[in-house]
Every structure is written in C-alpha cells, then in structure tokens.
Design brief:
single chain, elongated, about 70% helix, Arc Repressor Mutant, subunit A
C-alpha cells in the first residue's frame, strides 16, 4: 500500500512540478545567492546592492532623473528615494533640479563615488570569478544568449 501511494505521489509531483519549474526555481535561488554574497562582500562600504546598482547606472548615465532611475532599475520610487537619500548623506551623489522642469530632480555622482566604485567593481569581479568557475567563455556566451531569449519571450507576455 505504501509503495502504491509513493508511486502515485511521485507521478503527481512529476506532473505538477516540471523541469521548467525547476529551472525557474534554480534561477531564483542563484539570483538570491548572488545578491546575498555581494551584500556580504560590500558590507564594509556601508552600501547595499541597490545603492551599488544606482551608482553603477549613474556611471553610465550621469544626471538621470530619480523617477527614471526607479523605472530603469525596476524599483519603487520610495525605495529609490530612500537609497538616494542615504547615498546623498554619504556624500556619494547629489540631486540637482532639472533646468527645464523644476519638479524633476536629476541625480549626479560626487567625487567620493568615483573613488569608491573601483572597490565595488573589484568585489563584483571577485564574485564573478567564483561564480563562473568551470565555465568557458563560450559557455557563458551561450548562457547569455539563452537568457536573452527567455527575457525577450517574457517581454511579449501581455499584462
């Protein structure tokens, strides 16, 4: 009787939790683990991963508005506001009013951010080295291609 129940339970679980589900679960685990590992590595800087993402984005697009940062980083406006407040208190960024629209605040890096970013970059690079052990550049490029396809597919889903 127990083996019949175990067999049925296995068949039910195999049909309800598919290989594709397992892949999504694994991707979520990897994302969480990477986020936590990076947070631990940069803890001594007093920054969070979200604040690092803001600084990294500002390095590429200096002077972006706070609202645009929230949208581009897929974060709530309140979350961005709090993170920028902290970065401003630490002397890493400053808000400046937009000359064309005084209601809009643009975020700019301060000199201290340029001094800190190489340390953050080095920590990210060390974590990446550990993350990609055993994978060739070709493996990584293929993974990127597959993830790009998945992202493109997801972008077409309505709602």
């Amino acid at each position: 009787m127990a083996s019949r129940s175990a067999s049925r339970d296995s068949a039910v679980s195999d049909s309800l939790v598919t290989q594709r589900d397992e892949i999504v679960f694994r991707m979520e685990e990897i994302t969480r683990t990477l986020r936590q590992a990076f947070e631990r590595r940069i803890q001594q800087t007093g920054l969070t991963r979200t604040q690092w993402r803001i600084l990294a984005y500002l390095l590429r697009s200096e002077g972006v508005s706070q609202s645009d940062l929230a949208r581009l980083l897929d974060l709530e406006r309140a979350t961005i506001g709090q993170a920028i407040d902290t970065l401003e208190e630490q002397g890493l960024v400053e808000r400046r009013p937009c000359p064309a629209d005084r209601r809009v605040w643009r975020v700019h890096l301060r000199e201290a951010a340029y001094d800190l970013v190489p340390l953050l970059r080095a920590e990210a690079d060390r974590l990446h080295e550990l993350t990609w052990v055993g994978l060739t550049e070709s493996d990584i490029a293929f993974l990127e291609l597959m993830l790009d396809r998945v992202a493109a597919n997801l972008s077409t889903i309505p709602g």
